[in-house]
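pasting for the record
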Amino acid sequence: MDKTRSTSNENKTYWENHLQRLGASGLSRKKYCDEHNLNYARFHYWIKKLSASKAEKLIAVKLLSHESTNTTPLCTLHFKNAMTLAIYHIDVIDFIFAKIN
């Protein structure tokens, strides 16, 4: 195997693991980097790099107005990139299931 490719794969795995741990930690990116002795700029670079490869999978969604009085999410999705999506309306859940099935 090409040594450059191997190093690149190891770097990707290393930063993916840190990104996953960031999401589970509940810390800000800066605080997480400080606590794990990570270079913040390098961490940010890898967050962008790993997110860019998944960007083409995004789909447009229609946002609903805040007419609903429901202040408790029906479900919350936690992504590897430390992002969270709280879903408050059943139509959104139906939409997601329709896209993945």
